[in-house]
Amino acid sequence: MNKKSAVVGLVLAGGRSVRFGGEKAVALLEGRPLLEWAARRLESVCRDVAINVRPGTEAESVAKGLGLPTLYDAPGDATGPLAGVSAGLIWAEERGARVLAVSPCDAPLLPDDLYVRLLEGSEGEAAMAETRDGLQPLCALWPVAALPAVREALAGGAHPPTWQMLERLGARKVMFERTDAFANVNTRDALATVEA
User: Fold this and answer.
1) Are strands 32-33 and 28-29 parallel, antiparallel or unpaired?
2) Does pLDDT of 2 surpass 60?
């Protein structure tokens, strides 16, 4: 099995984007929605890429328009990124993959070699990016074998922080020099700055 066939990707695009004043995932950068930028970056190392969305959103429509599968949080799961990761791990297991590469939808400047370096540094284990500013747990690799632990962590409506779950899995940390590359686009002004 070649490396790419063992890895599938997930873009987390289910957030409510309150500060942004609209769905961040579908905001355009150079004419392309942010979720597409994230999906294309994952495609460099992944056999398949899906988008975690809320039903009835613009992000769902855009993802479907791009021909990308859409995944929804399980009923009863608390809102947040770990619920999206769980949905992604279930899908990855169904696809026969061994690893799920996860990306936020709102960090368009992420390094092009991000997932290549995470895969090299992970040796098949969980891994996450780190910068001088700290851990970047939404830029991570999750082994599909972690699904039972993730489901257990979400039981009863709990939603532990994503970094905490990765730490519990013994995630390897891969250091990246440029902290600005991991900046989230949380406002329209921030998106305008990135575009400039």
Assistant:
1) antiparallel
2) no
**Residue 121 token pair:** 């540094």
| CA 119 to mean position of chain CA atoms | 15
Q: Which parts of 72-154 are beta strand (E)?
A: 99-104, 127-131, 134-143
Residue 107 makes CB contacts below 8 A (sequence gap 6+) with: 38, 138, 139, 181, 182, 183, 184, 185
- The confidence band for 1, taking pLDDT boundaries of 50, 70 and 90, is very low
DSSP letter, residue 117 = H
Question: Inter-axis angle of helices 114-122 and 34-43, to 10 degrees?
Answer: 40
CB 127 within 8 A of CB 92: no
Q: Is 35:13 a contact under the CB 8 Å cutoff?
A: yes
In angstroms, rounded to a whole number, what is the distance separating the alpha carbons of residues 75 and 85? 14
Give me the residue label for tokens 């040796």. 123
Q: Model pTM? A: 0.91
> What one-character DSSP code corresponds to residue 186?
-
Calculate the alpha carbon distances from 181 to 59, 126, 176 in Å: 23, 21, 9
Model confidence pLDDT, tens digit, residues 51-106? 999 899 988 999 999 999 999 999 989 888 999 999 999 999 999 999 999 999 98
